[in-house]
Amino acid sequence: MSQADDDLKWGRSKIDTVCPLDCPDTCSLEVTVENGKILSIDGSDKNPITDGYICGKVRRFGERVYGDARIHQPRIRTGPRSAGQWKTATWDEALGSIASRMTEIRQQWGGESILPFSYGGSNGLLSQDTVDARLFRQFGAARLARTVCSIPTRTASQALYGKMPGVTYADYCNAKLIVIWGANPSSSSIHLLPYIRSAQEAGAALVVIDPRRTNLARRADLHLALKPGTDVVVALSIHRYLFEQSLAAEQFLAEHTEGAIRLRERAAEWTFDRAAAVAGLDPELLENFAEMYTDISPAVVRCGWGLERNRNGVNAALAILALPAIAGKFGVRGGGYSMSNADAWMLSPDDWIGAPEPNTRIVNMNKLGRALLEYRDPPIQMLFVYNCNPVATMPNQNLVLKGMNREDLFTVVFDQVMTDTADLADVVLPATTFLESYDVARSYGSTNLQLARPVIEAVENARPNVEVFAELATRLGLDIGTDYASDAEALLRLTADFPDEAQRALMEGGLAEGVARGRPIQFRDVFPRTTGRKVYLFPEHLEQQSSIGLYRYKTENENRDYPLTLISPATEKTICSTLGELRARVARLHIHPADAESRGLSTGDTVRIFNDLGEVHCTVAINADMRSGTVGLPKGLWRMSTLNGSTANALVSDSLTDIGGGAVFNDARVQVARVVTVSFTEDPMLTKNTVEQPH
Ligand SMILES: Nc1nc2c(c(=O)[nH]1)N[C@H]1C(S)=C(S)[C@@H](COP(=O)(O)OP(=O)(O)OC[C@H]3O[C@@H](n4cnc5c(=O)[nH]c(N)nc54)[C@H](O)[C@@H]3O)O[C@H]1N2
Ligand SMILES: Nc1nc2c(c(=O)[nH]1)N[C@H]1C(S)=C(S)[C@@H](COP(=O)(O)OP(=O)(O)OC[C@H]3O[C@@H](n4cnc5c(=O)[nH]c(N)nc54)[C@H](O)[C@@H]3O)O[C@H]1N2
Ligand SMILES: [Mo]
User: Fold this and answer.
1) In what order do the strands lie in the sheet with 511-512?
2) Whole-number Å distance between alpha carbons of 273 and 271
3) DSSP code of 431?
4) What is the enclosing helix (H) or strand (E) of 274?
5) Residues 605-629: pLDDT tens digits?
6) Tag placement on the chain: N or C end, fewer CB within 10 Å?
7) DSSP of 98-153, one letter per residue?
């Protein structure tokens, strides 16, 4: 029997779609469905970067679709908050009760007391900032500043280069020097790896700048294991060298840039010795890096997101992204930088939202706990969470929990699974996954748009965002039109504002290639999208927003009680906190052998990681790949993945980056101590006690 006959016999079909989740790779997928159920999820060749393979976690996505954590029906809380007591409800009851509470709350407290809270979710263009935004704008709710990720790097890259597309993955093969700066593609964008490998095979040198010895750092010619938060001085020391040694690309600077002199002045103090002392590196390594970056071309810098999540985030990204301009690395294939390409299409959501923004209060999402507990006139009375799991992903977890536990807060959580956030809701609504509804995925690693289509029917009573917000709007008496009544209609509405050719390619073939298809060369095929196509090396508007000025280093608050720096980067197990429900094991704190030894720790011990904000209990893994003085926990853990229900974000403060209001996930000061569990078997009242081991 042929494969086709076999498929027919089993009611099996293979359907093309895309993974829209928040990852630069945006893989094209081939999903095998049998009798209406997902059998397997694989990569396809449609997106050339996917090249037929995908990550392990999305291959397992069916376990989320059909898993125990999935929400099947709307639920309404019946017991005390977070006690897990619910009654199931119809959509009619659930949306009815939400609409009447929203109306009451607006009457009593004003629209600004209602805070819609969303971030990436499945990261599709349809499921966020379409009819949801139209609803909340028309209703006059508070506005949310989506600052949890990429604000610092985006602020820097837009100020310098506007929305210029980056060096494409494919062109990494043409580079002779690849600098992976604060990115870990082995976890966070695996499809870049083959291009790096083939460049290395062709003789390219690799530099990795990361406090951890990552997989790529192990294969690198040079690894700068700097202290987190010190990237700005490392980059400035290279700028200083280029200027002092008359190696700066004077002609390029004269033709294409403004502000080089101001940058030069600020860089002047950063000798290799001084920068190395701050970054905790050997000055010789900085010198090696400077020489490599000067001598080798084409050179590409992959600027990641790990470097932005600290008090110097914007200045770090500015100093790094200015390097190819000062060193004259543009204009050749494989030369320049890559950052996010999210803005390459220059799409503007306002077109399809179709309602003006109200002039209501703006809440920085990194301050969620504070907003819930401290904001007055009016206080926040209602939280509507969708596309987000703030208990797991926002800074200052204990403050978020305290705020969300307020008895007088009305909370709606709209999600696919019972997250840590959903546990605290008054009403829970079941959402479809990207395998059950239409969406449009916009890649930020390359520049294509791809169509996500339903490969199965919605599981139980799950519904797509657009449908739910459209119905809620109607119940609120808003006149929002009918163009978002279903996800299929919404797709037409959304894509109507795309360039014609893109819309046609997307609707007919499922994929519209953006500018990256032509593998554009920076400063030959693509230019800064700024006034006069210039690079603004010293953006004055940012200088004014910074308390210490541009290209300056803010020192850390030394605290003897908390001598270690905690970072919490992406892992291959989850995507942010999505799929965290499938992560069964207790998380491990990664710590350098020297830091473990001075605390008497062995691998497998239970430890307490703590500071003034909170504590996390988990096990420990001694790991020589960590930098001494820096410890690591995984990003995106659920509360069940530790022994005390707290995760890395319980230790992360809600203070903000230098500019832009970003989160400082990699800038937490902590102490670690061993926890000894003693069993008192003879005393039935005291079966378990926890004693901290002094060190
Ligand atoms: N598997 C998987 N893939 C993902 C995600 C995921 O959670 N899981 N998340 C997605 C999202 S939302 C994003 S934003 C991207 C993030 O992707 P990446 O850019 O890779 O960012 P991170 O994982 O935050 O951190 C990258 C590296 O930065 C290092 N680092 C930490 N602090 C510093 C510092 O101060 N300086 C320097 N130079 N390095 C530092 C970390 O050790 C880590 O190896 O990945 C996306 N892809
Ligand atoms: N400690 C630490 N914390 C971090 C980071 C870090 O480096 N360290 N990184 C940060 C980064 S880079 C990011 S981007 C943020 C991300 O933080 P979040 O925006 O909270 O991202 P997720 O954890 O993926 O949560 C998205 C939720 O949306 C739900 N969802 C998906 N699709 C839909 C849909 O169509 N409809 C509805 N209603 N719901 C949907 C998913 O089930 C999931 O629960 O986390 C940040 N948190
Ligand atoms: Mo992110």
Assistant:
1) 439-442, 449-452, 511-512
2) 5
3) B
4) helix 272-279
5) 999 999 999 999 999 999 999 999 9
6) N
7) HHHHHHHHHHHH-GGGEEEE---TT-BSSSSSSHHHHHHHHHTPPEEE--SSSHHH
Write the residue with the smallest CA distance to atom 30 of ligand 1: 306
Strands annotated E in 562-627: 564-567, 588-591, 606-610, 615-622
How many other CB atoms sit within 10 Å of the CB of residue 19? 27
Q: What is the pLDDT of residues 187-244, one digit of tens each?
A: 999 999 999 999 999 999 999 999 999 999 999 999 999 999 999 999 999 999 999 9
Cis ω for the linkage preceding 378 (within 30 of 0): yes
User: If you average pLDDT over every residue of the chain, what do you get?
Assistant: 95
| Cis amide linkage into residue 24, ω under 30° from 0 | no
| pLDDT (average), residues 250-269 | 98
Give per-residue burial for 494-510: e unless 16+ CB within 10 Å, then b.
Answer: bbeebeeebbebbeeeb
Contact 225, 203 (CB under 8 A): no
Residue 576 Cβ contacting ligand 2 at under 6 Å: yes
Q: Which helix (H) or strand (E) holds 224?
A: strand 222-224
Residue 313, SS3 per DSSP? helix
C-alpha of 7 from chain center: 39
At residue 452 the predicted structure's pLDDT band, cuts being 50, 70 and 90, is very high
* Of 348, 352, 351, 349, the residue nearest 489 (C-alpha): 352
Q: What angle is formed at CA 419 by the lines to CA 103 and CA 104, rounded to 5 degrees?
A: 10
Cα–Cα dist 465/430, whole Å: 10
* Residue 81 near residue 423 (C-beta atoms within 8 A): no
Choose among 240, 230, 220, 254: nearest CA to 294.
240
CA of 393 to the centre of ligand 1 (A): 14
Provide CB contacts within 8 A for 690, sequence distance 6+: 675, 676, 677, 678
pLDDT at 433: 98
Kindly give, in sequence order, each residue whose CB lies less than 8 Å from that of residue 504, ignoring residues fewer than 6 positions away.
none
E-strand ranges in 387-426 read 410-415
Instruction: Give per-residue burial for 570-609: e unless 16+ CB within 10 Å, then b.
Output: bbebbbbbbbbbbbeeebbbbbbeebbeebebeeebbbbb
CA of 623 to the centre of ligand 1 (A): 18
Task: Give the angle 486-497-350 at the CA atoms, nearest 5°.
Answer: 85
Pair of tokens at residue 642:
């530790």
- For residue 678, is pLDDT > 90? no
Residue corresponding to tokens 């209990």? 617
Q: What is the pTM of this model?
A: 0.96
* DSSP, residue by residue, 397-457: HHHHHHHHT-TT-EEEEEESB--TTGGG-SEEEEBP-TTSS-EEEE-SSS--EEEE--SSP
Q: How far apart are CA 571 and CA 193, in angstroms?
A: 16
Residue 452: alpha-carbon gap to chain centroid: 20
- Cα 575 to middle of ligand 1, angstroms: 11
CB 603 within 8 A of CB 597: no
Query: Ligand 1 pocket, 151 CB below 6 A?
Result: no
Q: How far apart are the first and last CA of the chain?
A: 69
Residue 694 confidence class, pLDDT cut points 50, 70, 90: very low
d(CA 94, CA 414): 11
Q: Is 183 in the pocket of ligand 2 (CB under 6 A)?
A: no
H or E, element range at 490: helix 487-495
CA quadruple 86, 89, 91, 95: dihedral positive or negative? negative
Number of H helices, E strands in the chain: 24, 28
Cross-strand pairs, 216: none
Instruction: Write the DSSP string, 317-341.
Output: HHHHHHHHHHHT--SSTT-EEE---
What pLDDT sits at residue 551? Answer: 98
Q: Which residues surround ligand 3, an ion (CB under 5 A)?
A: 149
Would the CB of 153 count as within 6 Å of ligand 2?
no
**C-alpha to C-alpha distance for 48 and 25, rounded to whole angstroms:** 11
